[in-house]
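User: Predict the full complex structure for these chains.
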Amino acid sequence: MNLPVIFLTIPYTDAIHSIKKDVKYESGVNIFIDQPAVNVAELYRFLNNFQHHFVVSVSAATLAAADEKLFADVYLLYCLSASTGMNENRIYIYVEPIGNGAKSASQKLKSYFYSQGEMNVEPVAIGYPIQEVLVNNTLFIKYTSLLAMNRELSAKYSGEKINQVIVSLPSNESMAGIAGQLAAAMTNNPSLRSFIELVSLRMEYDWTLAQSGLWKSRAHLYLSFISLSKKVGEKQYYDVLDWYKKEYEVLPLWYKRFGHILKWLTGNKKISFLLGGKKLKTTGSKSIDKQ
Amino acid sequence: MSFSKQIAVLYHIFYEDTILHVEEQLKALKSFNPFYFFNISADAPDQAEIRTMLQQHFNDAVIITSSNQGKDIGAKLLLIHTCLRLNIEPGWFIFLHDKKSHQALNASTWKQDLMTIADPRNIDMIKGIINDNTDYGIIAPGKQVKEETIEKGNFISTNSTILQRLLDEYNLAPKDFRFVAGTMFWARATAYLNFFKAHDALEIRRTLEKGNIVDDFSGTYTHSWERLLSWIPSCQGYTIKTI
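Assistant: Here is the predicted structure of the two-chain assembly.
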């Protein structure tokens, strides 16, 4: 699949000031929403640089101060992300200090997502500023530590089920500079390269597993369609039958016979009903052919 | 009139095999140089591959992935909301989705009829209709335009209670109770943008049912909004043109 597993953390306020056209980065981005109002159009232009591979994080304080418009924007961003579902539907809530308001912010966000039919979205609280920490298969790590990854650290993390790496960045570096250094480190640092390859494999494995679950659900859905179509077909059959009984069967016999004769005279009826079931094709006053 | 970027195609994908023929299906619309908006259902397997192929077929398409809430109606509401939040306000929307309706006995004919709005043989006619007439709010296949049954001033379908509630809540008074069964049609975007600027489409989406619901046995908000999506232009004085 070749999808990014490294997500560079950029505060929203910095992101919308660093929109560049026709720049493409190979990594993804972790958009850290640090204010209660988001210009989605501007942010979307910025995310073009990452082919829309991004995850969303938001500070607990911002969530606490926000109205439901921010929840709606976070949800829209979640939908717009090409990485949606690949991090097991996690949204990160940065809490400073850890524990302060995390539970209520998580619950509010989770409730909003639930009301939009996203039953599996899991807000995850993370202490801020970010320290090197492994939470729910995501490694949070500083940029300098990632670049300096050595054999020991790579070995330490290889035993974990890491499928995503979220990197906090130094504030004095340009995005282009960071992307260049990261690309160089991936070439020159074999420990980093093997670690990221392992994370990519893990992400693909988890993603494939999730897809296999979707295929199973799809099979059940198709079975339910068969059952439903039978039920609907049966209902429509009985509706027609009821209508026939109520509207036609109750009519007197002479009326129905007269109707047959009328149909025969107008050329819309075979003559068989008059001949005890013998099939004679006739069109009333038109020529009669024996079948 | 130049149609470039005056049209937005809003397409909901639920089935995994749609990606195999969506490009061919929408080929005739390329002459409009439209915006493309796709919603991929989060229930669809192979959604990463679907997204990649959509990007290959439709350059600069806006692609979202969302829960199966409100079926294609929920998706269309979300796509309209996306348009608004990205500050894209075209002259016309084209609502489409990969309808199969396995439960319906006439599913195949239904889908064929609905897709006549993107049929190459009808495109020049549609361009003419858009250029010549400012009163049309919806251009739709005639065979799929149905009328909600009203007896003695009341709706009588399974959706009757919900329909009346929604008309009251949103202060809607349609002059015409016809609707496009299947919700695939050309729609004057102004009418929808006016409405959804006043009433948040995502808030409405929250009220829709989850999963693959039908209204054969009882009413649903999803099927009621299917009607309302056809009635919104009528409430603003626009009419339906059938083709």
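Strands of chain A lie at 6-11, 28-33, 54-59, 90-95, 122-127, 133-135, 138-142, 164-168, 280-281, 289-290.
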